[in-house]
Amino acid sequence: MTVIDAQGRPEPPADGDEAATLIGFLDFQRATLAWKTAGLDAAALDTTVAASTLTLGSLLKHMAYVETAWFSRSLFGRPMGEPWDSVDWNADRDWDWHSATADTPEDLHALWQSSIERARALTAEALADGGLGRLAHRTWPDGRSPSLRWILCHMIEEYARHNGHADLIREAIDGETGE
124 in a domain, yes or no? Predict the structure, then answer.
């Protein structure tokens, strides 16, 4: 039974196995970013705080990229698909961050959500083909490959770090606070 908190986030299972616990914490972090970006218009999603150029819209697009990069390209060695495959990454290594301002809130949320759905399907595929210890197609310069377990933990860390940014930006926009 999934418990949903006051912000609409699924609580990780208190008694799940390792895979369910990791996926539960990742889904909780994903839902936190959804909460922090919900109901905002384009101007709000493009708001910066202090000297930073970081926006909630750029966080959504970056996390869509990260979801796709890790679960499609790194885990399986598959093409990332559009919009990623046609980007000239050599011209702008941070295109995912910089291009978000041209996207509508609906497009940003749709891109991010479709990336999550694809990541969930690829996670299920990897779990069925080797479990959490399944090694990624991607190899690091030293020849090692991260496991699905490592990728899930990394994604939890990635969301947790950026959700801290999202907290600060959202509070500056409209005073919305929490966790």
Answer: yes
